[in-house]
Write a structure and sequence with these properties.
It contains 3 helices and no strands. The relative contact order is 0.16. Helix 2 runs antiparallel to helix 3.
Amino acid sequence: MSLYVRWFSMPRQKRTGWVLVAVGVGFLLYFFKTRLFAAGPEITNREWFYVVAYTVLIMLGTINIRMAEMKERNQKTLPLIDPNQKPR
């Protein structure tokens, strides 16, 4: 239950970023295990395109996570400012 509460207490942008990263890493792990390190048919250009696309997906997810953290940080007052001052 704690994981559920923690997941839905995150901002939507951060949740989206984590989903993108998880999907991208999942596909790359599948690709490396079943296609790259296992014997089988030759890897096509389409599959290499998917590897590049999912790598870009991981980058976009990471950017989403970082931007959500920056947004959270900027909405709070700075630690050296009077706490009674209005948040940004």
